[in-house]
Amino acid sequence: DTAHVITQDTFDFKAYMLHKANTVNQALDAAIALRDPEKIHQAMRYSLLAGGKRVRPLLCIAACELVGGAEETAIPAACAVEMIHTMSLIHDDLPCMDNDDLRRGKPTNHKVFGEDVAVLAGDALLAFAFEHVAVATKGVAAARVVRAVGELAKSIGGEGLVAGQVVDIDSEGVSNVGLERLEFIHLHKTAALLEAAVVLGAIMGGGTEEEVEKLRKFARSIGLLFQVVDDILDVTKSSEELGKTAGKDLVADKVTYPKLLGIHESKEFADKLIEDAKEQLAGFDPLKAAPLFALTNYIAYRQN
Amino acid sequence: AASPSVASIRSKAANFDLKTYWGSLIVQINDKLDEAIPVRFPPQIYEAMRYSVLAKGAKRAPPVMCISACELFGGSRLAAFPTACALEMVHAASLIHDDLPCMDDSPSRRGHPSNHTIYGVDMAILAGDALFPLGFRHIVSHTPSDLVPEPYLLRVIAEMARSVGSTGMAAGQFLDLEGGPHAVGFIQDKKFGEMGECSAVCGGLLAGAEEDEIERLRRYGRAVGVLYALVDDIIEERFDVDGEIYGVEKAIEKAEELRAKAKEELDGFEKYGERVLPLYSFVDYAFDRSFSVDDASG
Question: Of chain A residues 18-57, which have a CB less than 8 A from chain B?
Answer without folding.
Answer: 35-37, 39-41, 44
